[in-house]
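Regression test case RT-17, inverse folding.

Input:
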């Protein structure tokens, strides 16, 4: 653990796959808030997504490592994917606070679509006391409903707003493109594109999953 880190960005996500929307957002937050590092945290079993529809954690982790390799300020953590059972952001923030110490300020980075959901996350009031929260613009999503802003304000916290160069990219769209045989060039780093092709990810997820289920039921 690098103890000289005073301002740590945290970019959580499923990263299935990681794309330029994530990378641009993390880099914009780093510049704007003078973050020493941005830690990418591929999610484990999320309470918000169906685990059956998500690629193996190891694939998502490796793609995130490849995508962030060339940025000396970016790091990837396995803390969420290695945790047993459902992972909650509150547990991760408590752990990071412990690991980095009280002198390190945490900045949790999210897109405009996720920020409104935070109020319903586990121990949300404690969550926003442990970290600063940055809501980044994301094309297709309203910047941020006022009630989220107010909710932060009521708890003496300020929700940071960050304008990032517009990137109308989503992992869902990339998965659909791969499945349909369309190009994903310039939407993801080349290394991620190669990884997807080599491992035949997203070709036909539902079939693969039902085959897997069938195979398991035979055993
Ligand atoms: P999916 O379509 O599978 O939900 P996604 O593209 O939304 O994938 P996630 O892994 O769910 O990616 O998102 C991780 C974080 O990155 C979230 O906070 C999300 O709001 C943010 N994010 C994702 N894409 C963008 C984008 N194009 N611009 C800004 N923020 C983004
Ligand atoms: Mg998403």
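Golden output:
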């Amino acid at each position: 653990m690098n103890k000289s880190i005073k301002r740590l960005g945290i970019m959580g996500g499923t990263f299935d796959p990681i794309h330029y929307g994530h990378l641009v957002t993390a880099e914009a937050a780093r510049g704007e808030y003078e973050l020493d590092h941005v830690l990418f945290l591929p999610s484990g079993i999320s309470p918000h997504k169906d685990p059956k529809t998500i690629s193996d954690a190891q694939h998502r982790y490796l793609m995130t490592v490849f995508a962030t390799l060339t940025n000396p300020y970016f790091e990837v953590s396995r803390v969420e994917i290695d945790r047993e059972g459902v992972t909650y952001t509150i547990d991760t923030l408590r752990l990071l606070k412990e690991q980095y110490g009280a002198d390190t300020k945490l900045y949790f980075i999210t897109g405009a679509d996720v920020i409104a959901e935070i109020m319903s996350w586990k121990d949300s009031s404690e969550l926003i006391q442990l970290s600063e929260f940055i809501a980044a613009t994301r094309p297709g999503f309203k910047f941020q409903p006022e009630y989220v802003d107010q909710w932060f304000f009521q708890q003496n916290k300020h929700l940071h707003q960050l304008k990032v160069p517009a990137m109308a990219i989503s992992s869902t769209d990339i998965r659909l493109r791969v499945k349909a045989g369309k190009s994903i060039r310039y939407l993801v780093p080349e290394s991620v594109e190669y990884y997807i092709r080599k491992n035949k990810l997203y070709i036909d997820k539902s079939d693969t999953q039902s085959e897997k289920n069938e195979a398991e039921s035979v055993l």
